[in-house]
Amino acid sequence: MNSETAPPEHNPQPVSSPNRTSAFAMCFSCTPRGARLARRLAGQQFDAWGVPYDCDTHHVLTLIVAELAANAVRHGRVPGRDFHLALTCDATTVRIEVTDTRTEGVPVAAAPTGLHDAGRGLLLVEHLADRWDWHPRPGGPGKTVWAEYVLPTGGGPAAAPTRPSSAAVSASTPCRTATAGRRIDAAVT
After folding, report:
1. Quick one: DSSP state of residue 168?
2. Do 164 and 174 touch, CB atoms closer than 8 A?
3. ∠ Cα 145 109 107 (to 5°)
4. What residues pair up with 84 in beta bridges, in sequence order?
C-alpha cells in the first residue's frame, strides 16, 4: 500500500453470496500483537471449519490473513483505532476481509525494489488468492482489503501434505508443494 496517494474513486464491491454458511468477525488492536492474534484466531477458525492445521489450504489461508493483517497494522494504522477481520466460508470459497480506518493510500501489489525486507505482502496475496481487491470502508473512513480462496475439489479440505522425515532432510533441502494449482517453493530448516 502506498500512503502517499489519495484513494481514487474505487468501488469494486464483491458480489455477495446468499450461500455463506459460516462467519467469524472480530476487532484487533492495530499493533503487531493484534496482527499475530488475528492470524492465530483465524487459523483456529479454519480448523473448526474443517480445514485442518496440517494441510496446504490451511497454510495458504493463514498466510493471506497474516499479510492482510500486517498491512493493516503497518499501512492502515490510525492511533487509537482497531482493525477488523471478517472471515466467511461456504462450500466452495473462503473470504477474508481486513478493514482499517486510514483513508489515504491505495493497496497495490507492486514489485519490490532491491533487496528490501518489505513490499511483498500483496504480491503473495495476489499469487495465493483466487481474487482480491479493496473497497472503501462502508459507513466510515478507511478501506477494506479482501481476498477469496476457492477451496480445492468441491470444498473439502485438502489432504495433509506428505513431508519427508526430518532425519532425511538437510537444512537446505528444497520442498515444493502444489496448492490448488499454485506452486510454493520453500526450504526446510
Report:
1. G
2. no
3. 40
4. 27, 99
